[in-house]
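User: Second chain of the day. Same drill as before.
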Amino acid sequence: MRRSRGQEGAALIIGLVVLTSFALVIGSLMSLGGSSLIATSALRDQRARIYAAEAAVDEEATRLRGGSPCGRDPFPAPSYILPKANPVSITVQTSPGPGGTCVLSAYDGSQPTLQATLAIDQTAGTATVQSWDASPEHYNPPDPDRGGD
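Assistant: Same format as last time:
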């Protein structure tokens, strides 16, 4: 009896092609998942900085409404900790702005995080927001006396 030799090893080759295809698909899905985790972590840290800066500026605005002078020493706000994010320490610097306003600049280390301009009426105990910006490219230049660039 004679065997047909045309089909020998075909199942092995097909199996290897299918296995390689699955390996490539799974590898690319794992790479995409890893990139998503990194992006999520970076976004979480950025949001933590913004939230902490907003809380610190809000706290400083409350102090200003209560009678603290605009332009005094920088206010070191307490560390704000958000779940699953790194602790953030913010410093708020106040300086007199145009038209009797007060400019509050929040810094994470030396990095500007948020800048707000408020009109403070200490007799009425109110603060009216003139501007609120969390885009560093829109900030006024940092004060060189503060150690900024």
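The chain has one domain: 36-146.

User: Great, on to the next one.
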